[in-house]
């Protein structure tokens, strides 16, 4: 699953895909996993940055993985700059290069590519962020989906019956089938509810003094959303610990609904996850293809 999702992101960013065993692909997988493994650990360095001056195996591994990542990204960036054409936009990196050149052509004393976040470093880190946020998260949701469906064979059977009825066996599911496969969509929503990929979302900072209910929030305050609590609140969800895709279907079982405003798997507002649409498409295609072909 990790390899498949990584290839999707590679196609999006670099217009390239890799076969199993490709040396560059294997390096990419190793550094990605190394970053995830080290960042996921609790570390005093996160609280007291000055501790990084002391020997730290995890921090050393993280720096090594980031260095390898940066070299691979730089290689792709240099190749794209050499082959760039204003008449062809192959992938995200081409789109970023076009935006950078446009900013440079319209450069003024007040506005430059650097000031609008389109320097070489900005472009490289944008692609790096997409890898960091787009591979591990989607892979984790897929793993949770497979786990829950293995333990709930009746849900798996309903998905397969829906696929057999609406898609058949003579072709593979396509994104255009999403509207006719509500039970599969409801299952994806339930996986995102019961096992949110980011239980505390991403830390934010209040930009101005405000309030939430009776609580005052001062400018500069750290704001953390307990998404796990929202998705398991008994006041909002009936039997929240029960895996039940039906909670996202109407009474007839043919239409999708959002039964609670406390459903925020990708966050909300202007800081909502930019990869929401891509993640939903990936989850649909991977799961529909898997369960059209296999019973787990």
From TrEMBL:
PROSITE patterns from the UniProt entry: CYTOCHROME_P450 (PS00086)
Biological-process GO terms, alphabetical: hormone biosynthetic process; progesterone metabolic process; steroid biosynthetic process
Binding locations of heme: 273
InterPro entries xrefs: Cyt_P450, Cyt_P450_CS, Cyt_P450_E_grp-I, Cyt_P450_sf
A Pfam match: p450
MF GO annotations: heme binding; iron ion binding; steroid 17-alpha-monooxygenase activity
GO-annotated cellular components: endoplasmic reticulum membrane
Source superkingdom: Eukaryota
Location, primary (coarse class): endoplasmic reticulum
Membrane topology qualifier: Peripheral membrane protein
Cofactor(s) listed in the protein's UniProt record: heme
Family membership noted in the UniProt record: Belongs to the cytochrome P450 family.
Descriptive protein name: Cytochrome P450c17I
Organism: Larimichthys crocea
Gene: CYP17I
């Amino acid at each position: 699953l990790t390899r498949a999702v990584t290839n999707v992101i590679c196609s999006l960013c670099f217009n390239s895909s890799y076969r199993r065993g490709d040396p560059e692909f294997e390096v990419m997988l190793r550094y990605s996993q190394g970053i995830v493994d080290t960042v996921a650990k609790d570390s005093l360095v996160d609280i007291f940055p000055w501790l990084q001056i002391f020997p730290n195996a995890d921090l050393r591994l993280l720096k090594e993985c980031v260095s390898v990542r940066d070299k691979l990204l730089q290689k792709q960036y240099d190749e794209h700059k050499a082959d760039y054409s204003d008449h062809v936009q192959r992938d995200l990196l081409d789109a970023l290069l076009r935006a950078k050149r446009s900013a440079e052509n319209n450069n003024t004393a007040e506005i430059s590519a650097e000031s609008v976040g389109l320097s070489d470093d900005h472009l490289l880190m944008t692609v790096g962020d997409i890898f960091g946020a787009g591979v591990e998260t989607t892979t984790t949701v897929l793993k949770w989906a497979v786990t829950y469906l293995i333990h709930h064979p009746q849900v798996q059977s309903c998905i397969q019956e829906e696929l057999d009825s609406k898609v058949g066996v003579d072709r593979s599911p396509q994104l255009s089938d999403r509207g006719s496969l509500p039970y599969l969509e409801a299952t994806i929503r339930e996986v995102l509810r019961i096992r949110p990929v980011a239980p505390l979302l991403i830390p934010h900072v209040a930009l101005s003094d405000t309030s939430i209910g009776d609580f005052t929030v001062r400018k500069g305050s750290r704001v953390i959303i307990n998404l796990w609590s929202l998705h398991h609140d008994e006041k909002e969800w009936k039997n929240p610990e029960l895996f039940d895709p039906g909670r996202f279907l109407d009474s007839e079982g043919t239409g999708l609904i959002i039964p609670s405003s406390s459903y925020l798997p990708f966050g909300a507002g202007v800081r909502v996850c930019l990869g929401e649409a891509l993640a939903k498409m990936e989850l649909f295609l991977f799961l529909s293809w898997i369960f059209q072909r296999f019973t787990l």
